[in-house]
Amino acid sequence: MNVLFIDDDEDLNMLHEIMCSRSRIIKHSSFASSAEKALIYLSTTEIVPNIIFVDLHMPKMNGFQFIEKYEEHFAPKFSRTALFVLSSSTRESDKNSALGYSSVKDFLIKPLTEAKLEGILMEYLGHHQ
Known about the structure:
Elements: E1 2-6, H1 10-22, E2 28-32, H2 35-44, E3 51-54, H3 63-73, E4 82-87, H4 92-99, E5 104-109, H5 114-127
Parallel strand pairs: 1-2, 1-3, 3-4, 4-5
Helix pairs in contact: 2-3
């Protein structure tokens, strides 16, 4: 399983990297510190992510703008990729907006725990075998 995290919080990315290294399910994990870097990664990578976690509130291009670009340019190519919003926002309007995108599978509140990550991975595997 290949996972991409998009978040401008480097400490959180480091924590997620540790969680991924402990996982027996994740084969490859990538981290982008901005939505712009994530779009470049997606346009150049040979490794198709099975799951993408994206933060909403980032400078320059926010998570909503990333999702729009993702759906326009990558969703058809990555038809088996599941996108999850991973945000510190507890605003119902953010959740409803995020879930309004066809590629977004769920809206998760930070922090992501190892148990929650493993549950998402197992659920993905169950739907894509």
